[in-house]
């Protein structure tokens, strides 16, 4: 199953929030709004800032702002900044090449599928994530919090068990 990491999911949520609250927002406002863990989100925001997707907001409240217009930041760029290369199958290397080339009967179709997924993700811009009303996103995310305030499952649907930071969240679609 093709999945986004929890960190990439949180990064997309954070960039969407920052796009809605330009010119910038406090990093502490995001976890409270969407039920995300502050420590993990802080690491994600720092990584996005190192990759020049976010810039600092100076002042007493501080925070982050998008480094460029949300219509020029693609979902794939965010995912690559957080998780590194996207691979479709375990036999693909970091560049999406089949490591079993001569013997792989589905190498060509998988390569085409991989390229299609990359093009799809590259074509989704942060500005497009603004099309879903924020109150619906917040209500769904908050409803997934357990009694201790910890995330029970991703905002896209129920999970059988809590996940660690290394597991992946389902891609939409």
Task: Describe the model.
This protein is mostly helical. The protein has a domain at 3-84 and 125-146: Winged helix-like DNA-binding domain superfamily/Winged helix DNA-binding domain (Arc Repressor Mutant, subunit A, Orthogonal Bundle), CATH 1.10.10. Helices cover 40% and strands 7% of the residues. It has helices at 6-20, 29-34, 38-50, 75-83, 107-123, 134-143, and strands at residues 3-5, 54-56, 64-66, 168-170. It has a two-stranded antiparallel sheet. It has a two-stranded antiparallel sheet with strand order 2-3. A hairpin with a 7-residue loop joins strand 2 (54-56) and strand 3. Helix 1 (6-20) crosses helix 3 and helix 1 packs across helix 4 (75-83). The model is unreliable at 139-173 (pLDDT under 50).
Secondary structure: elements and pairs:
Layout: E1 3-5, H1 6-20, H2 29-34, H3 38-50, E2 54-56, E3 64-66, H4 75-83, H5 107-123, H6 134-143, E4 168-170
Antiparallel strand pairs: 1-4, 2-3
Helix pairs in contact: 1-3, 1-4
Q: How would you sum up the global shape?
A: elongated
- CA distance, first residue to last residue: 12 Å
Based on CA atoms alone, the radius of gyration comes out at: 17 Å
Kindly report the spatial arrangement of strands forming the biggest sheet.
1-4
Counted by DSSP, the helix tally is 6
Looking at CATH, the homologous superfamily of the domain at 3-84 and 125-146 is Winged helix-like DNA-binding domain superfamily/Winged helix DNA-binding domain
| Weakly predicted, low-confidence segments | 139-173
CATH architecture of the domain at 3-84 and 125-146: Orthogonal Bundle
Average per-residue pLDDT, rounded, comes to 77
SS strand fraction? 5-15%
Question: Main beta sheet: strand number and arrangement?
Answer: 2 strands, antiparallel
The tally of beta strands, per DSSP, is 4
What is the CATH top level name of the domain at 3-84 and 125-146? Mainly Alpha
Which percent range fits the helix content?
Answer: 40-55%
Order of helices and strands: EHHHEEHHHE
CATH topology of the domain at 3-84 and 125-146: Arc Repressor Mutant, subunit A
Q: Helix- and strand-based class?
A: mainly alpha
């Amino acid at each position: 199953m093709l999945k986004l990491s929890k960190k990439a999911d949180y990064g997309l949520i954070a960039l969407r929030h920052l796009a809605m609250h330009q010119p910038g927002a406090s990093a502490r406002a995001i976890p409270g709004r969407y039920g995300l863990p502050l420590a993990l989100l802080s690491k994600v925001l720092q990584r996005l800032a190192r990759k020049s997707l976010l810039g600092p907001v100076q002042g007493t409240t501080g925070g982050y702002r998008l480094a460029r217009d949300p219509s020029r930041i693609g979902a794939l760029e965010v995912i690559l900044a957080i998780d590194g290369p996207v691979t479709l199958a375990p036999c693909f290397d970091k560049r999406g090449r089949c490591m079993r080339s001569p013997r792989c009967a589905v190498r060509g179709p998988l390569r085409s599928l991989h390229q299609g997924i990359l093009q799809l993700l590259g074509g989704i811009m942060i500005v497009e994530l603004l099309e879903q009303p924020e109150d619906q996103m917040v209500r769904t995310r908050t409803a997934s919090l357990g009694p201790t305030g910890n995330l029970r499952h991703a905002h896209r649907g129920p999970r059988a068990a809590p996940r660690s930071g290394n597991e992946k969240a389902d891609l939409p679609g």
